[in-house]
Specification:
Layout lengths: L1 E8 L16 E5 L4 H11 L2 E7 L15 E7 L3 E8 L11 E9 L7 E8 L6 H25 L7 E7 L7 H8 L2 E3 L2 H7 L3 H9 L8 E7 L2 E7 L2 E6 L5 E6 L25 E6 L18
Helix pairs in contact: 2-3
């Protein structure tokens, strides 16, 4: 399972004394199996409700026809109200399916009842050129569906905030990430990812000096277009910086100390090959979106 967490605060709710990154308002999980018989009841015990989108092309079916995984969004009942959701089910092939789950949320402790759309996404895996093309097409489709969802469901499209979490299977310089940044989204770990995107010679020098580039997944895979042991960025928490959202704090994922001789995750101390991302967002000063010619507004 892969997990991304984000806590949200509004300008009328800035007095949270707890470490919100360890007690988040919203949790997004990719490749979540045993949702109904484990995750949902366990999260309910901890004060959360959940929504789930099953992957009809789940690789779990290679091992059992009864076991599938999917995308899950868990929200804290005390602070978050679910007022809408969308599950895309129109794709006819695995390659066409940008696995996404949309949730329209209201932050209950905000005096302005800040409206937030959270998207949990899991884009196509693989490093071959055709997979790169598939991911950028999936990112474009996700943005198109986001705009339609906001126009159809959001009470005020001018002030709604957007958060996209997930495993995009893409490095920061890939076209699909460029497309998302071009829509106004910014990564919570952008500065660390930027250091990864330096010239190869600089990265090689870093590694010679004992410095590892920042990574969110650590695995060993063999085969065509697979480069053995790999540490790279492929997971993101992205937020609507163009609408005034800001990062208040974040927790950098574990980068070392996985155990002697570990050449990939999961391990005895880390239950997934992807690392948990955690950040706290503020929506203090929403930026009003630019109206479109049809009287609506572009939810980028």
């Amino acid at each position: 399972d892969k997990e991304d967490k984000e806590d949200k605060e509004d300008n009328n709710n800035n007095n949270n004394e707890n470490d919100s990154t360890s007690n988040p308002d919203v949790i997004c999980v990719q490749e979540c199996d045993h949702y109904y018989d484990f995750f949902e009841p366990e999260m309910q015990k901890r004060g959360y409700f959940g929504i789930y989108r099953e992957d009809k092309w789940s690789p779990c079916q290679k091992f059992s026809n009864e076991l599938k995984d999917g995308l899950a969004i868990f929200c804290k009942r005390e602070t978050v109200e679910l007022v809408g959701m969308h599950v895309s089910t129109t794709a006819e092939t695995k390659e066409q399916d940008a696995k996404v789950l949309f949730a329209r949320l209201i932050m209950k402790k905000s005096l302005t009842r800040q409206e937030v759309v959270v998207i949990n996404a899991h884009l196509e895996s693989g490093q071959s050129p055709d997979k790169v093309v598939t991911r950028v097409n999936q990112a474009k489709e996700m943005c198109s569906r986001l705009n339609a969802f906001c126009v159809a469901q959001c009470s005020n499209i001018n002030t709604v905030q957007i958060v996209v979490c997930g495993d995009f299977n893409a490095t920061p310089e890939e076209p699909c990430m460029e497309h998302l940044r071009g829509r106004g989204l910014k990564s919570a770990y952008e500065d660390l990812e930027t250091s990864n995107s330096s010239k190869n010679g600089e990265q090689e020098q870093q590694q010679l000096e004992g410095e590892e580039p920042f990574f969110t997944t650590f695995k060993t895979r063999l085969g065509f277009f697979k480069n053995g042991t790999s540490k790279r960025v492929s997971d993101y928490i992205m937020y609507s910086a163009h609408r005034g959202a800001k990062i208040v704090s974040r927790v950098e994922p574990q980068q070392s100390g996985f155990g002697e001789g570990v050449v990939g995750l999961p391990s005895k101390t880390q239950p997934s090959d992807h690392l948990c991302l955690r950040s706290r967002l503020s929506f203090e000063h929403p930026v009003v979106a630019t109206p479109t010619s049809n009287g609506g507004a572009q939810a980028k």
